[in-house]
Amino acid sequence: MAFTHNHTRKVVLITGASDGLGLAAAKKYAQADFTTVLAGRSKEKLAKAVEAVRVAANIKESQADLKVYSLCFDLSDLDSVRRGVAEFLNLNIPLNILINNAGIFTTTREFTKASNIFEKTIMVNMVAPLLFTELLIPRMKESGGGKILIVSSNTHNPEQAVPLSKKKDTKRLILPLDNLDGSKEWDGQDFYAASKLADLWWAYVLADKLTNSEPRITVNAFCPGAVPSTSLAREFPWILRKIAPMIFPLLLSNVLTPEKAAEQYLAYGTDPKFALDNGFYYQRGSKDKSSDESHDMVKAKTVYNLACQASGLNDHQVAV
Ligand SMILES: NC(=O)c1ccc[n+]([C@@H]2O[C@H](COP(=O)([O-])OP(=O)(O)OC[C@H]3O[C@@H](n4cnc5c(N)ncnc54)[C@H](OP(=O)(O)O)[C@@H]3O)[C@@H](O)[C@H]2O)c1
Fold it and tell me: Which residue puts its alpha carbon closest to atom 29 of ligand 1?
């Protein structure tokens, strides 16, 4: 396919790049000479982020339009997601690496207009990114293949120490299938963890679907570490947000700055040692084991199919 400007640089598209880890990762990729597409939901924040990336990567203002792009759409609105895809396709540039990084951690049970099967945290953190990704896979194929990275979290795993968790039963199910809407029980922390488990289910099912893809597309997921200085906990009381960066290093071993975490975003996308991986979970810069529940492929495929139905991708479903 002939791309605009005979595009020769590799292109990375990062969702949630207007803030936090996504913005830090966009800077790293731009510094590594990638064309960087920053996706976010606020035009104002994106404009500032694009400028921050330009400055961090020492890109001349005259070159900025060709090297750093922004894409504005809202993951809580599937029509907006489809418009975001169309806008990206209209740029007519390749897509080599897609990092599904955007995410929310909410304190109230809400729904988006597209679904009452999944509550909002799962919609924004898994269903909408799934739609975005599936619609971009053809462009990745036209680009000669590529890498899809999905940002999950260690919180998906009840066996790994979560010092602030209210529930201590490490063997409990994080996400029973009859409670995807939170109608039986809803808690912000639990549903954040559930959405990150759903991210792993999606990663493993999609990796399986793309196993023999030609050109090759791989799918892997990772936890970026605990990075309390981002805006993720923005809905929580300010006092908690204030003390979290001080307390977390005392409770957790993998507390990082956004810049340090962003090095992993770059490594998982570009380091040759990860090049052939498909269907893996990374943590602390290497492969790691995700929870037992994340490897329940019946649940994984069931939730994947429900997400396809919720986003109008009925023909993308898999046999369970
Ligand atoms: N920070 C941690 O300790 C940690 C640990 C494990 C995993 N993670 C994961 O890392 C990822 C990035 O988190 P972060 O800590 O960098 O959080 P953050 O600072 O809050 O950044 C989240 C990004 O997602 C965007 N976003 C939120 N809702 C959106 C929506 N409806 N539509 C489009 N974009 C939306 C935000 O846009 P706005 O700027 O407009 O709000 C922002 O750019 C998340 O998936 C999170 O679950 C974080």
Answer: 75
- DSSP 8-state assignment for residue 317: -
Contacts of 185 (CB under 8 A, 6+ apart): 179
Q: Which of 15, 41, 125, 155 to mutate to test the pocket of ligand 1 (most atoms within 8 A of CB)?
A: 41
Sequential DSSP letters for 98-165: EEE------SS---BTTBSSS-HHHIIIIIHHHHHHHHHHHHHHHTT-EEEEEE--GGG-TTS--TT-
Tokens at 98, concatenated: 């897609």
In the chain, what is the greatest distance between 2 CA atoms, to the nearest angstrom?
57
- pTM score: 0.96
How do residues 141-186 score in pLDDT, each as one tens digit?
999 999 999 999 999 998 875 555 566 666 677 888 999 999 999 9
Pocket of ligand 1 (CB under 6 A): 16, 18-22, 40-42, 45, 74-76, 101-104, 124, 151, 153, 223-224, 226-228, 230-232
Q: In angstroms, what is the C-alpha Rg of the chain?
A: 19
Domains of the chain: 4-225+252-316 (3.40.50.720)
Distance 17 CA to ligand 1 centre (A): 8
